[in-house]
Amino acid sequence: MAYVADTIFALATAPGKAGVAVVRVSGKRVTETGRALFGDLPKPRFAALKLLKDSEGRRLDQALVLYFEKGSSFTGEEVLELHLHGSTAGVNAVLRELSEMKGLRLAEAGEFTRRALENGCLDLAQVEGLADLIDAETEAQRRQALRVLSGDLGTLAGKWRTDLIRAAALIEATIDFADEDVPVDVTPEVTELLSGVRTQLYTEIAGVETAERIRTGFEVAILGAPNVGKSTLLNALAGREAAITSEYAGTTRDVIEVRMELNGLPVTLLDTAGLRETDDHVEGIGIQRARERAKAADLRVFLTLEGDDPDFTPLPNDVIRSAKADTLNDPQYGISGKTGFGVSKLVAEITEKLSDQAGRSGVATRERHRIAMKRASESLDAGRAVFALGPDHYDIGAEELRTAIRALDSIVGHVDVENLLDEIFSSFCIGK
Length: 432
Prior knowledge:
Blueprint: E1 7-11, E2 20-26, H1 30-38, E3 48-53, E4 59-68, E5 79-85, H2 88-99, E6 104-106, H3 111-118, H4 124-135, H5 139-149, H6 152-176, H7 187-216, E7 218-224, H8 230-238, E8 256-262, E9 265-271, H9 281-296, E10 299-304, E11 319-322, H10 343-358, H11 367-387, H12 394-411, H13 418-426
Parallel strand pairs: 1-6, 7-9, 7-10, 10-11
Antiparallel strand pairs: 1-2, 2-5, 3-4, 4-5, 8-9
Helix pairs in contact: 4-5, 6-7, 6-12, 7-11, 11-12
Protein backbone atom coordinates (compact mmCIF):
# COMPACT_ATOMS: atom_id res chain seq x y z
CA MET A 1 0.00 0.00 0.00
CA ALA A 2 1.34 3.42 -0.97
CA TYR A 3 2.19 6.25 1.40
CA VAL A 4 -0.96 7.41 3.18
CA ALA A 5 -0.06 11.12 3.13
CA ASP A 6 -0.60 11.26 -0.63
CA THR A 7 -3.80 12.73 -2.00
CA ILE A 8 -5.53 10.06 -4.05
CA PHE A 9 -8.22 10.07 -6.72
CA ALA A 10 -10.17 7.49 -8.70
CA LEU A 11 -13.37 6.83 -10.57
CA ALA A 12 -15.79 5.59 -7.88
CA THR A 13 -18.48 4.33 -10.25
CA ALA A 14 -18.28 1.56 -12.83
CA PRO A 15 -16.25 2.40 -15.96
CA GLY A 16 -18.04 2.87 -19.27
CA LYS A 17 -20.83 5.08 -20.58
CA ALA A 18 -23.43 6.04 -17.95
CA GLY A 19 -25.76 8.84 -16.96
CA VAL A 20 -23.48 9.98 -14.15
CA ALA A 21 -19.88 9.13 -13.20
CA VAL A 22 -18.42 9.98 -9.79
CA VAL A 23 -14.74 10.80 -9.31
CA ARG A 24 -13.54 10.85 -5.70
CA VAL A 25 -10.52 12.75 -4.34
CA SER A 26 -9.25 12.27 -0.76
CA GLY A 27 -6.32 13.76 1.14
CA LYS A 28 -4.57 16.93 2.22
CA ARG A 29 -4.58 18.60 -1.22
CA VAL A 30 -8.34 18.46 -1.79
CA THR A 31 -8.79 22.20 -1.29
CA GLU A 32 -6.04 23.05 -3.78
CA THR A 33 -7.45 20.53 -6.23
CA GLY A 34 -10.93 22.03 -6.08
CA ARG A 35 -9.67 25.57 -6.52
CA ALA A 36 -7.60 24.52 -9.52
CA LEU A 37 -10.55 22.78 -11.18
CA PHE A 38 -13.46 25.14 -10.48
CA GLY A 39 -12.60 27.86 -7.95
CA ASP A 40 -14.15 28.17 -4.48
CA LEU A 41 -15.26 25.01 -2.75
CA PRO A 42 -18.96 24.61 -1.94
CA LYS A 43 -20.09 24.52 1.67
CA PRO A 44 -19.37 21.16 3.31
CA ARG A 45 -21.96 18.51 2.35
CA PHE A 46 -23.86 20.96 0.13
CA ALA A 47 -23.92 20.21 -3.58
CA ALA A 48 -22.99 22.96 -6.05
CA LEU A 49 -22.95 23.03 -9.85
CA LYS A 50 -19.47 23.93 -11.05
CA LEU A 51 -17.73 24.35 -14.42
CA LEU A 52 -14.53 22.29 -14.43
CA LYS A 53 -11.55 23.65 -16.34
CA ASP A 54 -8.06 22.33 -17.05
CA SER A 55 -4.80 24.13 -16.22
CA GLU A 56 -5.06 26.17 -19.45
CA GLY A 57 -8.63 27.30 -18.80
CA ARG A 58 -10.33 24.95 -21.26
CA ARG A 59 -13.66 23.44 -20.26
CA LEU A 60 -13.63 19.84 -19.06
CA ASP A 61 -17.22 19.31 -17.91
CA GLN A 62 -20.02 20.77 -15.85
CA ALA A 63 -20.26 18.80 -12.63
CA LEU A 64 -22.19 18.58 -9.39
CA VAL A 65 -19.56 18.98 -6.68
CA LEU A 66 -19.65 17.80 -3.06
CA TYR A 67 -17.06 18.68 -0.42
CA PHE A 68 -16.60 16.85 2.90
CA GLU A 69 -14.46 18.23 5.71
CA LYS A 70 -11.83 16.21 7.54
CA GLY A 71 -13.55 13.98 10.09
CA SER A 72 -16.89 14.10 8.26
CA SER A 73 -16.12 11.94 5.23
CA PHE A 74 -15.96 8.24 4.41
CA THR A 75 -12.15 8.19 4.66
CA GLY A 76 -11.92 10.61 7.58
CA GLU A 77 -9.89 12.98 5.38
CA GLU A 78 -10.98 15.93 3.27
CA VAL A 79 -12.92 14.48 0.34
CA LEU A 80 -14.10 15.95 -2.94
CA GLU A 81 -16.67 14.22 -5.13
CA LEU A 82 -17.13 15.24 -8.75
CA HIS A 83 -20.43 14.03 -10.25
CA LEU A 84 -19.68 14.18 -13.96
CA HIS A 85 -21.60 13.42 -17.11
CA GLY A 86 -20.88 9.76 -17.66
CA SER A 87 -19.11 9.84 -21.02
CA THR A 88 -15.89 7.85 -21.28
CA ALA A 89 -14.05 10.76 -22.92
CA GLY A 90 -15.24 13.28 -20.33
CA VAL A 91 -14.26 11.10 -17.38
CA ASN A 92 -10.86 10.35 -18.90
CA ALA A 93 -10.23 14.07 -19.43
CA VAL A 94 -10.91 14.83 -15.76
CA LEU A 95 -8.81 11.89 -14.56
CA ARG A 96 -5.97 12.98 -16.83
CA GLU A 97 -6.11 16.51 -15.43
CA LEU A 98 -6.02 15.20 -11.86
CA SER A 99 -3.06 12.96 -12.64
CA GLU A 100 -1.04 15.99 -13.80
CA MET A 101 -1.63 17.92 -10.56
CA LYS A 102 1.19 18.07 -8.03
CA GLY A 103 0.81 15.70 -5.08
CA LEU A 104 -2.05 13.66 -6.56
CA ARG A 105 -1.94 10.05 -7.69
CA LEU A 106 -4.39 7.34 -8.75
CA ALA A 107 -5.72 5.35 -5.80
CA GLU A 108 -4.86 1.69 -5.39
CA ALA A 109 -7.49 -1.04 -5.01
CA GLY A 110 -9.43 -0.51 -1.79
CA GLU A 111 -7.31 2.44 -0.71
CA PHE A 112 -10.23 4.74 0.17
CA THR A 113 -11.62 2.04 2.46
CA ARG A 114 -8.20 1.33 3.95
CA ARG A 115 -7.87 4.99 4.88
CA ALA A 116 -11.29 4.79 6.52
CA LEU A 117 -9.94 1.90 8.62
CA GLU A 118 -6.67 3.65 9.48
CA ASN A 119 -8.50 6.84 10.44
CA GLY A 120 -10.92 4.98 12.73
CA CYS A 121 -14.01 5.49 10.57
CA LEU A 122 -14.48 1.73 10.13
CA ASP A 123 -13.20 -1.32 12.01
CA LEU A 124 -11.89 -4.36 10.15
CA ALA A 125 -15.14 -6.30 10.51
CA GLN A 126 -17.01 -3.36 8.95
CA VAL A 127 -14.54 -3.33 6.07
CA GLU A 128 -15.33 -6.99 5.46
CA GLY A 129 -19.03 -6.16 5.66
CA LEU A 130 -18.57 -3.48 3.02
CA ALA A 131 -16.79 -5.94 0.73
CA ASP A 132 -19.65 -8.39 1.20
CA LEU A 133 -22.23 -5.68 0.50
CA ILE A 134 -20.53 -4.79 -2.78
CA ASP A 135 -20.55 -8.47 -3.77
CA ALA A 136 -24.10 -9.16 -2.51
CA GLU A 137 -26.34 -10.77 -5.14
CA THR A 138 -29.30 -11.82 -2.97
CA GLU A 139 -31.46 -10.21 -0.32
CA ALA A 140 -30.10 -12.43 2.47
CA GLN A 141 -26.53 -11.51 1.52
CA ARG A 142 -27.44 -7.82 1.49
CA ARG A 143 -29.07 -7.96 4.93
CA GLN A 144 -26.20 -9.90 6.45
CA ALA A 145 -23.55 -7.59 4.99
CA LEU A 146 -25.40 -4.52 6.27
CA ARG A 147 -25.46 -5.95 9.80
CA VAL A 148 -21.69 -6.30 9.76
CA LEU A 149 -21.14 -2.94 8.03
CA SER A 150 -23.36 -1.27 10.63
CA GLY A 151 -20.93 -2.39 13.32
CA ASP A 152 -22.99 -5.12 15.01
CA LEU A 153 -20.04 -7.52 15.24
CA GLY A 154 -17.71 -4.80 16.51
CA THR A 155 -20.29 -3.78 19.12
CA LEU A 156 -20.65 -7.38 20.29
CA ALA A 157 -16.88 -7.91 20.44
CA GLY A 158 -16.59 -4.62 22.34
CA LYS A 159 -19.13 -5.78 24.93
CA TRP A 160 -17.25 -9.06 25.42
CA ARG A 161 -14.00 -7.12 25.76
CA THR A 162 -15.49 -4.79 28.39
CA ASP A 163 -16.76 -7.74 30.44
CA LEU A 164 -13.39 -9.50 30.29
CA ILE A 165 -11.51 -6.34 31.23
CA ARG A 166 -13.82 -5.96 34.23
CA ALA A 167 -13.20 -9.57 35.25
CA ALA A 168 -9.43 -9.20 34.82
CA ALA A 169 -9.45 -5.99 36.87
CA LEU A 170 -11.27 -7.72 39.72
CA ILE A 171 -8.85 -10.67 39.66
CA GLU A 172 -5.79 -8.41 39.53
CA ALA A 173 -7.13 -6.35 42.42
CA THR A 174 -7.32 -9.56 44.42
CA ILE A 175 -3.70 -10.33 43.48
CA ASP A 176 -2.55 -6.82 44.43
CA PHE A 177 -4.16 -7.11 47.86
CA ALA A 178 -3.26 -10.76 48.45
CA ASP A 179 -1.58 -9.94 51.79
CA GLU A 180 -4.53 -7.90 53.02
CA ASP A 181 -8.14 -8.60 53.85
CA VAL A 182 -10.20 -7.94 50.72
CA PRO A 183 -13.65 -6.81 51.94
CA VAL A 184 -15.58 -8.26 48.98
CA ASP A 185 -15.36 -11.71 47.39
CA VAL A 186 -15.07 -11.05 43.64
CA THR A 187 -15.52 -14.69 42.63
CA PRO A 188 -19.29 -14.56 41.97
CA GLU A 189 -19.05 -11.49 39.71
CA VAL A 190 -16.03 -12.85 37.84
CA THR A 191 -17.75 -16.20 37.34
CA GLU A 192 -20.89 -14.52 36.02
CA LEU A 193 -18.93 -12.31 33.61
CA LEU A 194 -16.89 -15.19 32.21
CA SER A 195 -19.90 -17.50 31.90
CA GLY A 196 -21.89 -14.85 30.02
CA VAL A 197 -19.10 -14.16 27.52
CA ARG A 198 -18.37 -17.86 27.07
CA THR A 199 -22.03 -18.70 26.32
CA GLN A 200 -22.32 -15.91 23.75
CA LEU A 201 -19.03 -16.90 22.12
CA TYR A 202 -20.15 -20.48 21.63
CA THR A 203 -23.46 -19.29 20.17
CA GLU A 204 -21.67 -17.10 17.64
CA ILE A 205 -19.10 -19.77 16.80
CA ALA A 206 -21.92 -22.21 16.02
CA GLY A 207 -23.51 -19.70 13.61
CA VAL A 208 -20.40 -18.85 11.57
CA GLU A 209 -20.68 -21.80 9.18
CA THR A 210 -24.24 -20.85 8.25
CA ALA A 211 -23.31 -17.18 7.90
CA GLU A 212 -20.50 -18.17 5.55
CA ARG A 213 -23.00 -20.16 3.51
CA ILE A 214 -25.16 -17.06 3.17
CA ARG A 215 -22.09 -15.22 1.88
CA THR A 216 -20.88 -17.91 -0.51
CA GLY A 217 -24.08 -19.82 -1.25
CA PHE A 218 -25.81 -22.99 -0.07
CA GLU A 219 -25.31 -26.17 -2.10
CA VAL A 220 -28.09 -28.64 -2.89
CA ALA A 221 -27.00 -31.90 -4.52
CA ILE A 222 -29.38 -33.97 -6.68
CA LEU A 223 -28.50 -37.66 -6.32
CA GLY A 224 -29.75 -40.92 -7.74
CA ALA A 225 -29.07 -43.79 -10.07
CA PRO A 226 -28.22 -43.21 -13.75
CA ASN A 227 -31.09 -42.14 -16.02
CA VAL A 228 -33.39 -41.47 -13.07
CA GLY A 229 -34.17 -37.90 -14.20
CA LYS A 230 -31.64 -35.80 -12.27
CA SER A 231 -30.60 -33.64 -15.22
CA THR A 232 -34.21 -33.20 -16.33
CA LEU A 233 -35.11 -32.04 -12.81
CA LEU A 234 -32.15 -29.65 -12.75
CA ASN A 235 -33.30 -28.12 -16.03
CA ALA A 236 -36.84 -27.76 -14.67
CA LEU A 237 -35.56 -26.04 -11.52
CA ALA A 238 -33.22 -23.79 -13.51
CA GLY A 239 -35.82 -22.96 -16.14
CA ARG A 240 -33.33 -23.65 -18.93
CA GLU A 241 -31.33 -26.44 -20.58
CA ALA A 242 -28.41 -26.39 -18.15
CA ALA A 243 -27.64 -30.11 -18.40
CA ILE A 244 -27.68 -32.58 -21.29
CA THR A 245 -30.50 -35.10 -21.01
CA SER A 246 -30.56 -38.46 -22.77
CA GLU A 247 -32.23 -41.85 -22.57
CA TYR A 248 -28.74 -43.36 -22.25
CA ALA A 249 -27.49 -43.96 -18.71
CA GLY A 250 -24.31 -42.22 -17.59
CA THR A 251 -24.73 -39.05 -19.68
CA THR A 252 -23.62 -36.79 -16.80
CA ARG A 253 -19.93 -37.37 -16.13
CA ASP A 254 -19.11 -34.29 -14.04
CA VAL A 255 -20.88 -32.10 -11.49
CA ILE A 256 -23.03 -29.48 -13.23
CA GLU A 257 -23.78 -26.35 -11.21
CA VAL A 258 -26.71 -23.94 -11.54
CA ARG A 259 -26.86 -20.80 -9.41
CA MET A 260 -30.25 -19.49 -8.31
CA GLU A 261 -31.97 -17.54 -5.52
CA LEU A 262 -34.56 -19.02 -3.16
CA ASN A 263 -36.31 -16.70 -0.72
CA GLY A 264 -33.35 -14.32 -0.88
CA LEU A 265 -30.80 -17.09 -0.27
CA PRO A 266 -28.03 -17.88 -2.77
CA VAL A 267 -28.32 -21.54 -3.77
CA THR A 268 -26.23 -23.68 -6.12
CA LEU A 269 -27.95 -26.78 -7.46
CA LEU A 270 -25.62 -29.68 -8.26
CA ASP A 271 -26.49 -32.25 -10.92
CA THR A 272 -24.26 -35.24 -10.23
CA ALA A 273 -23.24 -38.37 -12.05
CA GLY A 274 -25.54 -41.34 -11.56
CA LEU A 275 -24.51 -43.51 -8.61
CA ARG A 276 -23.72 -47.08 -9.69
CA GLU A 277 -20.87 -49.56 -10.05
CA THR A 278 -19.05 -49.02 -13.35
CA ASP A 279 -15.95 -50.17 -15.24
CA ASP A 280 -15.85 -46.91 -17.20
CA HIS A 281 -12.88 -44.97 -15.79
CA VAL A 282 -14.22 -41.51 -16.69
CA GLU A 283 -17.70 -42.25 -15.36
CA GLY A 284 -16.08 -43.63 -12.19
CA ILE A 285 -14.30 -40.31 -11.63
CA GLY A 286 -17.64 -38.51 -12.04
CA ILE A 287 -19.31 -40.82 -9.51
CA GLN A 288 -16.50 -40.23 -6.99
CA ARG A 289 -16.85 -36.47 -7.44
CA ALA A 290 -20.60 -36.79 -7.00
CA ARG A 291 -20.12 -38.57 -3.68
CA GLU A 292 -17.60 -35.98 -2.46
CA ARG A 293 -19.74 -33.00 -3.41
CA ALA A 294 -22.83 -34.65 -1.94
CA LYS A 295 -21.12 -35.13 1.41
CA ALA A 296 -20.11 -31.45 1.49
CA ALA A 297 -23.52 -30.14 0.35
CA ASP A 298 -25.93 -28.47 2.76
CA LEU A 299 -28.85 -30.53 1.51
CA ARG A 300 -29.31 -33.57 -0.70
CA VAL A 301 -32.31 -34.43 -2.89
CA PHE A 302 -32.52 -38.16 -3.61
CA LEU A 303 -34.41 -39.41 -6.66
CA THR A 304 -35.32 -43.08 -6.36
CA LEU A 305 -37.09 -45.48 -8.67
CA GLU A 306 -40.09 -47.30 -7.29
CA GLY A 307 -38.98 -50.11 -4.97
CA ASP A 308 -35.33 -48.94 -4.81
CA ASP A 309 -33.47 -47.50 -1.81
CA PRO A 310 -31.05 -44.58 -2.11
CA ASP A 311 -27.52 -45.70 -2.94
CA PHE A 312 -26.15 -42.95 -0.69
CA THR A 313 -27.32 -42.88 2.96
CA PRO A 314 -29.55 -39.79 3.47
CA LEU A 315 -29.14 -37.52 6.48
CA PRO A 316 -32.20 -36.66 8.62
CA ASN A 317 -32.77 -33.30 6.89
CA ASP A 318 -32.40 -34.62 3.33
CA VAL A 319 -35.24 -34.89 0.81
CA ILE A 320 -36.31 -38.14 -0.91
CA ARG A 321 -38.59 -38.22 -3.94
CA SER A 322 -39.82 -40.99 -6.20
CA ALA A 323 -38.51 -40.26 -9.69
CA LYS A 324 -40.52 -40.06 -12.91
CA ALA A 325 -43.84 -39.38 -11.20
CA ASP A 326 -45.53 -39.25 -14.61
CA THR A 327 -45.10 -43.05 -14.80
CA LEU A 328 -46.22 -43.87 -11.23
CA ASN A 329 -49.61 -45.22 -10.18
CA ASP A 330 -49.44 -43.20 -6.93
CA PRO A 331 -47.36 -40.06 -7.58
CA GLN A 332 -48.10 -38.42 -4.19
CA TYR A 333 -44.45 -38.46 -3.11
CA GLY A 334 -43.07 -38.36 -6.60
CA ILE A 335 -41.58 -35.72 -8.85
CA SER A 336 -41.18 -35.31 -12.59
CA GLY A 337 -38.90 -32.78 -14.18
CA LYS A 338 -40.44 -33.72 -17.51
CA THR A 339 -44.04 -32.73 -16.63
CA GLY A 340 -43.25 -30.39 -13.72
CA PHE A 341 -45.27 -32.46 -11.27
CA GLY A 342 -44.07 -31.89 -7.70
CA VAL A 343 -41.38 -29.38 -8.70
CA SER A 344 -42.94 -26.37 -6.94
CA LYS A 345 -43.52 -28.47 -3.82
CA LEU A 346 -39.86 -29.54 -3.87
CA VAL A 347 -38.71 -25.93 -4.24
CA ALA A 348 -40.88 -24.93 -1.28
CA GLU A 349 -39.41 -27.72 0.87
CA ILE A 350 -35.82 -26.88 -0.08
CA THR A 351 -36.50 -23.21 0.64
CA GLU A 352 -37.98 -23.98 4.05
CA LYS A 353 -35.07 -26.20 5.08
CA LEU A 354 -32.40 -23.73 3.95
CA SER A 355 -34.25 -20.77 5.50
CA ASP A 356 -34.33 -22.68 8.78
CA GLN A 357 -30.56 -23.16 8.54
CA ALA A 358 -30.04 -19.50 7.68
CA GLY A 359 -32.04 -18.49 10.75
CA ARG A 360 -29.32 -20.00 12.94
CA SER A 361 -26.60 -17.69 11.60
CA GLY A 362 -24.97 -15.17 13.89
CA VAL A 363 -23.32 -11.79 13.41
CA ALA A 364 -19.87 -13.26 12.72
CA THR A 365 -19.58 -14.23 9.06
CA ARG A 366 -16.04 -15.40 8.30
CA GLU A 367 -13.66 -18.18 9.24
CA ARG A 368 -11.29 -15.51 10.59
CA HIS A 369 -13.97 -14.46 13.06
CA ARG A 370 -14.58 -18.06 14.10
CA ILE A 371 -10.88 -18.69 14.74
CA ALA A 372 -10.57 -15.52 16.85
CA MET A 373 -13.64 -16.39 18.91
CA LYS A 374 -12.42 -19.97 19.30
CA ARG A 375 -9.08 -18.71 20.62
CA ALA A 376 -10.90 -16.43 23.05
CA SER A 377 -13.19 -19.21 24.27
CA GLU A 378 -10.26 -21.58 24.78
CA SER A 379 -8.44 -18.94 26.84
CA LEU A 380 -11.59 -18.37 28.88
CA ASP A 381 -11.93 -22.09 29.58
CA ALA A 382 -8.28 -22.24 30.62
CA GLY A 383 -8.74 -19.21 32.86
CA ARG A 384 -11.83 -20.66 34.53
CA ALA A 385 -9.96 -23.90 35.23
CA VAL A 386 -7.04 -21.99 36.78
CA PHE A 387 -9.30 -19.82 38.95
CA ALA A 388 -10.86 -22.98 40.38
CA LEU A 389 -7.43 -23.88 41.82
CA GLY A 390 -7.53 -20.90 44.16
CA PRO A 391 -5.96 -17.46 44.66
CA ASP A 392 -2.40 -18.75 44.31
CA HIS A 393 -3.09 -19.28 40.59
CA TYR A 394 -4.98 -16.04 39.88
CA ASP A 395 -2.02 -14.44 38.10
CA ILE A 396 -2.02 -17.23 35.50
CA GLY A 397 -5.80 -16.90 35.10
CA ALA A 398 -5.50 -13.14 34.60
CA GLU A 399 -3.02 -13.74 31.78
CA GLU A 400 -5.47 -16.13 30.10
CA LEU A 401 -8.08 -13.36 30.21
CA ARG A 402 -5.65 -10.94 28.58
CA THR A 403 -5.03 -13.53 25.85
CA ALA A 404 -8.80 -13.79 25.28
CA ILE A 405 -9.07 -10.00 25.06
CA ARG A 406 -6.32 -9.87 22.42
CA ALA A 407 -8.14 -12.53 20.40
CA LEU A 408 -11.33 -10.45 20.44
CA ASP A 409 -9.37 -7.33 19.49
CA SER A 410 -8.20 -9.11 16.34
CA ILE A 411 -11.84 -9.37 15.14
CA VAL A 412 -12.09 -5.61 14.71
CA GLY A 413 -8.47 -5.18 13.59
CA HIS A 414 -6.81 -3.78 16.69
CA VAL A 415 -4.08 -6.44 16.82
CA ASP A 416 -2.56 -9.31 14.82
CA VAL A 417 -4.14 -8.48 11.45
CA GLU A 418 -1.52 -6.47 9.56
CA ASN A 419 -0.69 -9.46 7.36
CA LEU A 420 -4.37 -9.72 6.36
CA LEU A 421 -4.86 -6.16 5.18
CA ASP A 422 -3.26 -6.35 1.74
CA GLU A 423 -5.24 -9.50 0.96
CA ILE A 424 -8.53 -7.98 2.13
CA PHE A 425 -8.16 -4.69 0.26
CA SER A 426 -6.91 -6.32 -2.93
CA SER A 427 -10.45 -7.67 -3.38
CA PHE A 428 -11.88 -4.13 -3.56
CA CYS A 429 -12.17 -2.24 -6.81
CA ILE A 430 -10.18 0.94 -7.44
CA GLY A 431 -12.30 3.86 -6.28
CA LYS A 432 -13.54 2.04 -3.17
